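Entries read sequence, tokenised fold; example below:

***
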Amino acid sequence: MSSFVVPGSGWPDDPATAATPVADSAASVAALAASAASLAELTARQSVCRACPRLVAWREEVAEVRRKSFRDQPYWGRPVPGWGDDAAAILILGLAPAAHGGNRTGRVFTGDRSGDFLFASLYRCGLAAKPTSVSADDGQRLIGARMVAAVRCAPPENKPTPQERDTCAPWLAAELRLVAATARVIVCLGGFAWQALWPVLAECGYQLPRPRPSFGHGVQAEVVAPGSAGLSGGAGLSGGTGLSGGTGLLLLGCYHPSQQNTFTGRVTPAMTDEIFRRARAAAGLD
């Protein structure tokens, strides 16, 4: 028996089938991401990627050994694809799936303490249908929002290498292109996501502010969409409510809802709610 869910074998909302093409190198990630014609096709391809040997070995080892408290549960054990509203106005970008969270449940920020904290905030802010996210078949849905990760596989010690980040980047670039018509705000959860996003935006043709603002909770920056006029102002400022003219994306920094951050009070429910309420207003969802 495999240590991961076989594509098309009946896992709730599994986007892939046995016929889904599998990326096994950085070059094939780039090719398969670029040629995906829809979000459904893209997420299917994301969910079977095997391009990073270290990550593949780790995610499948975790899925085989399992945590004691989940020993009786099957683990997803595959890359965790983007999830949420296909016409999202807000993208929520995290670092990578948790070994016993997304790597177990098959859905990003689902089944762990960070997800509990995050979804409670999204629910309070009208961006999620329920205050909890525990499994792929729990009926949860995002409202006007979509969740993605800079790295789609659970990494050892939650630390992807720069090469793994860069290998995975075409999946994020392709997802951004496919939601570009509706996306207005990207909320970056943590400094890793903030840094990983900039080269992806450049690859997608966005005009970036110079200098690029450093990550911080509440920091924002505006980037201009391909083919638009120059920056509309406000890049890197911590105030303001959103885009001028709707010609690009507003980036918002938010401390990651890791247990280290939430237990120490570095990030509180009120702080996270304030970020998502700003995102709602900037995206025109209020």
User: Anything to note?
Assistant: The first strand starts at residue 83 and ends at 84. The mean pLDDT is 93. DSSP finds nine helices and six strands in the chain.
